[in-house]
Design goal:
By secondary structure, the protein is an alpha/beta fold. It has two domains: 39-185 and 232-301 and 310-334, Rossmann fold (3-Layer(aba) Sandwich); 192-228, no CATH class. The protein is built from nine helices and twelve strands. Helix 3 (102-119) links the parallel strand 4 (80-85) and strand 5. Helix 3 packs across helix 4 and helix 6 crosses helix 7 (281-288). The model is unreliable at 1-7 (pLDDT under 50). The structure holds S-adenosylmethionine. The site of S-adenosylmethionine has 19 residues, from strand 12.
Length: 336
């Protein structure tokens, strides 16, 4: 396992036995709060990952320790609104990230994907993260469990390129839909229009345009007051050590990225799950946005960081989170 870098905030690195001892002695001192919102299961060392056990229980969610497929099998048919899955990529990033072969990885992926499809409601969505060269192998066989899929690109500009190959500046996210009628709250993630569009806000479509309506003498297009439609390339920086949300997890996803998917593909009160919860980003963002959440991971250390993040979640209304992200996007643009 690569040496974990220590971030600016204090998440610490622990073994399972150290963690259990601290939980039994309450030596983490409630993370500076008077009382915790959730409860830890202090008999938590789980040697059998095929029988997942509840590690942290919260009024809005649960964190389980165990194997993702085994955990998904414990969930009811069509009981979940949204699944965000950021599985191992099979690129040796950590000890949990290597498989005997790409064929083994694909077989393993199809096992959890089949369960993911079973637990999703008919209007539900599954997002899967990965590098394009890996997801390309998964998309076609996975489609037998879903009605359709869109390919999204997460583009970042803040990663150093130290190798002598094409520098990586993106990861991909497959958007699988269980049926054609999937939840898609487009207004929650609209984007500002470009300056050019705003300069000519109302104009007829050209006759030759596929949107021109000759019978009605040319349909007028006006900008949507809530903004432009979201695009399939999403630019958000990767998490880095200066950020308050950063834990020592080696592949932590940014909260801002998760906010897009949870806002567009679920409603307040819906159930959002993550079978590879890691440091808890999906659960944290679900908690911020008033969704119910559940997650599972094989690591107690990561699950502890996830629970700590949940306990320290910042409270804002959904609209305030949307404005918070819009301001951050503007700020990044203004300093380029
Ligand atoms: C790419 S990371 C997820 C990171 C997460 N999205 C975050 O923001 O922190 C993948 C996670 O899957 C977990 N994992 C690996 N194999 C697993 C399995 N069979 N079942 C459940 N979790 C597993 C790893 O411990 C790791 O935390």
């Amino acid at each position: 396992m690569p040496k974990l870098k220590r971030p600016s905030n204090d998440y610490g690195s622990y073994s399972s036995s150290e963690l259990c001892l601290s939980l039994q002695n309450n030596s983490f001192r409630n993370f500076g709060k008077r009382a915790l919102d959730g409860t830890f299961n202090i008999n938590c060392i789980n040697s059998n990952l095929d029988a997942p056990s509840l590690f942290y229980d919260h009024p809005n969610g649960e964190i389980w320790i165990g194997d993702a497929t085994a955990w998904l099998k414990t969930l009811e048919n069509e009981s979940v609104d949204l699944i965000f899955a950021d599985p191992p990529y099979n690129i040796n990033k950590a000890e949990w990230d290597s498989f005997e072969s790409q064929e083994d990885y694909i077989k393993w992926s199809l096992l959890w994907l089949k369960e993911a499809s079973r637990v999703l409601k008919s209007n539900g969505t599954l997002y899967i993260c990965g590098f394009s060269e890996i997801l390309a192998d998964i998309k076609h066989p996975a489609l037998k469990h879903f009605e359709g899929c869109r390919w999204l690109i997460w583009h970042y500009k803040n990663k150093a390129n130290l190798g002598s190959d094409w520098g990586r500046s993106d990861e991909c996210i497959l958007h699988f839909r269980k049926s054609r009628r999937f939840t898609f709250n487009i207004d929650n993630i609209r984007l500002p229009y470009s300056n050019h569009t705003l300069k000519y806000p109302t104009h007829p479509q050209a006759e030759t345009s596929q949107y021109g309506d000759k019978k009605n003498g040319g349909r007028l297009w006006t900008p949507n007051p809530l903004g432009a439609k979201p695009k399939d390339v999403i630019e958000i920086p990767t998490t880095c050590n200066g950020m308050n949300e950063k834990t020592p997890h080696p592949t932590q996803k940014p909260e801002e990225l998760l906010r897009k998917f949870i806002l567009v593909s679920s409603n307040p009160g819906d159930i959002v799950i993550d079978p590879f919860l890691g440091s808890g980003t999906t659960a944290v963002v679900s908690e911020q946005l008033g969704r119910k959440w559940k997650g599972c991971d094989i690591s107690m250390e990561y699950s502890f960081w996830a629970a700590k993040r949940i306990e320290l979640v910042q409270r804002k209304s959904v609209q305030e989170w949307i404005q918070f992200d819009a301001k951050n996007t503007e700020r990044r643009k203004s300093i380029r």
